[in-house]
DNA sequence: TGAAGTTACATGCCCGTGCATTCAATGTCA
DNA sequence: TGACATTGAATGCACGGGCATGTAACTTCA
């Protein structure tokens, strides 16, 4: 707790807050207006597609939950919304009938592919 | 839009998301459980005290709004909560009777002083 | 095997937020 | 001065989130 570090933490937090707020608001607006996707919905699709985790378009709810900043209930409802929109399907797991497998539908994959450039361009705008 | 920068923006965003989420959750929890203050309530008190802006414990709503990441309506309600808790008072402004002056009450100053170390220690934990 | 604990998920409830609207107080301009 | 635009703030409304709970489906252990 060096005295010199103390004023810095406030500045760092302020900067994090600023970047987070600006970026997430713009992501939310762009994804919603152009692709009818909320940010967390997009993130579920992205995580489900799982390019970053070697996934194959399937995942268990618990695995998703562990990778995302969403509570179990919020994730459950987000998936429900995606399912109603036809972008995702829930399938029972054979081994454990409590667990849900989630799968990207073709429509889901398509929507994700459409939205990805929007997402990336916002990130580039704010981070490049 | 150098190709080499593109993968980096995702990582930067993921990192921002991680830090923001962890820090804000812990701030929220600690401030709430120890001082009965939500994070945005604390931030209003802090901004009102205005050490960082040369304030004197007073501010107009519009000025606060401009400095914070809250919509006008959210700020209005946050101030209402603080007022009900006796930590802040609204006073009409003489020059412009639409505008509100906000003032920290002694209780508000005291609560803020109590909460500040909690706030700072969380920030140090996450940023130092 | 059966009772008690644990896990995965859905759902009821409440809360904080943003958007759109409203209302009163100001400002502007002919 | 009077009509119209603008501004500061409060509020109705809907939505997404977290916490607590319910309920099935496992698991453990004697």
UniProtKB/TrEMBL annotation, chains A, B:
Keywords tagged on the record: DNA-binding, Transcription, Transcription regulation
GO MF term (any one): DNA binding
One GO biological process term: response to stress
Every HTH marR-type domain range: 1-128
Leader sequence segment: none
InterPro entries per the UniProt record, alphabetical: HTH_MarR-typ (IPR000835), MarR/SlyA-like (IPR039422), Tscrpt_reg_MarR-type_CS (IPR023187), WH-like_DNA-bd_sf (IPR036388), WH_DNA-bd_sf (IPR036390)
Taxonomic superkingdom: Bacteria
PANTHER family: MARR FAMILY REGULATORY PROTEIN, TRANSCRIPTIONAL REGULATOR, MARR FAMILY
Protein name, entry field: MarR family transcriptional regulator
């Amino acid at each position: 707790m060096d005295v010199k570090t103390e004023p810095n933490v406030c500045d760092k937090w302020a900067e994090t807050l600023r970047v987070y707020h600006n970026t997430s608001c713009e992501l939310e607006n762009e994804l919603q207006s152009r692709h009818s996707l909320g940010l967390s919905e997009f993130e579920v699709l992205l995580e489900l597609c799982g390019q970053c985790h070697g996934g194959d378009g399937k995942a268990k709810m618990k695995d998703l939950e562990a990778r995302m900043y969403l509570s179990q209930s919020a994730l459950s409802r987000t998936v429900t919304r995606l399912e109603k929109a036809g972008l995702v399907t829930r399938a029972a797991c054979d081994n454990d009938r409590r667990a849900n497998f989630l799968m990207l539908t073709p429509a889901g994959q398509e929507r994700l592919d459409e939205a990805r450039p929007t997402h990336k361009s916002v990130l580039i705008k704010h981070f490049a």
